[in-house]
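TA notes, week 10

Several of you asked for a full example with nothing omitted. So below is the full record: structure tokens for the whole chain, then the designed sequence directly under it. When grading your own attempts, check the secondary structure regions first.
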């Protein structure tokens, strides 16, 4: 079997040499044991890096052209688009996607390949320990995955983008042409036989995270609005609830004015409903606007990425 690794990279010059060494050692070891073909390799996808990432990829490819390959995007398109570019262009019986920061355990790659040999088209790498993450990141990640499930989005808890996909699963993924990509929810939609392998998440070996809080929030919103209509239904439910609340407030205001001397004429019946309804309208417009923005991006059919060079 030819098993290729797909590694999206953005400004990863600090960690790339060690990443290449560890990934090559994993492929070499499996090839020596006859688990995979010696033609298996590693495809680095340079997502418009501004440092020496592409120069390092080119040097790796020149030193070991049978093991290392490079795909250079013309600009920074984002992690999900870069990963998709690698999945669409790398050959092989199966592809394993892994980030360049080495936080995912390279040591479980042979286990993923073994599960593939047993007939699984998709093998998820699932984090069973996140000691390297801050308490805020651990709690927010857990809350987000549970929110996705509550909204009806099928995701694998504590799984990011470390996974193996067979050629059959990759061909099926190629039929999905939407612009707003969230692979963590898109891959489970394929429906092929899947399993998971578990590992402890490590600290980043070098460099800094390419997913600051702003990008993480953007990915989170994209994951919800691209795969669930429930927020729109919640607006309808909230509108009905607020209408009932406003009706009850009106009855209360009428009672206070009619049977007590504490009422301020016109205050409760005007201010309170306006505050409730105004806040509800603003939230509703924001959610609806997010969905309209998704429609706007989809109908333009712009390409997710452009490839400048392949080595």
């Amino acid at each position: 079997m030819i098993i290729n690794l797909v590694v999206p990279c953005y400004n990863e010059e600090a960690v790339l040499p060690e990443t290449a060494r560890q990934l090559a050692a994993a492929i070499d070891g499996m090839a020596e044991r006859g688990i995979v073909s010696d033609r298996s390799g590693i495809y680095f996808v340079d997502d418009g890096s501004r440092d020496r990432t592409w120069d390092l990829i080119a040097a790796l490819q020149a030193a070991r052209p049978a093991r290392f390959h490079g795909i250079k995007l013309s600009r920074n398109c984002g992690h999900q688009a870069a990963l998709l570019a690698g999945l669409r262009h790398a050959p092989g019986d199966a592809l394993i996607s892994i980030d360049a920061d080495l936080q995912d355990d390279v040591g479980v790659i042979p286990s993923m390949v073994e599960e593939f040999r047993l007939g699984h088209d998709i093998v998820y790498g699932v984090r069973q320990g996140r000691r390297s993450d801050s308490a805020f990141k651990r709690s927010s990640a857990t809350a987000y995955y549970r929110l996705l499930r509550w909204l009806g989005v099928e995701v694998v808890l504590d799984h990011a983008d470390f996974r193996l996909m067979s050629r059959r699963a990759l061909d099926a993924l190629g039929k999905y042409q939407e612009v707003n990509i969230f692979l963590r929810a898109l891959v489970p939609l394929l429906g092929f036989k899947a399993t998971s392998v578990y590992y402890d998440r490590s600290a980043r070996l070098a460099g800094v995270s390419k997913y600051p809080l702003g990008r993480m929030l953007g990915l989170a919103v994209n994951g919800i609005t691209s795969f669930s209509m429930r927020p729109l239904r919640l607006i309808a439910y909230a509108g009905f609830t607020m209408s009932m609340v406003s009706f009850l407030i009106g009855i209360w205001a009428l009672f206070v004015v009619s049977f007590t001397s504490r009422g301020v004429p016109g205050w409760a019946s005007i201010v309170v409903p306006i505050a409730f309804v105004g806040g509800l309208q603003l939230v509703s417009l924001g959610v609806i606007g997010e969905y309209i923005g998704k429609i706007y991006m989809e109908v333009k059919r712009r390409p997710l990425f452009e490839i400048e060079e392949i080595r």
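The longest strand covers residues 122-129. Use that as a sanity check on your answer.
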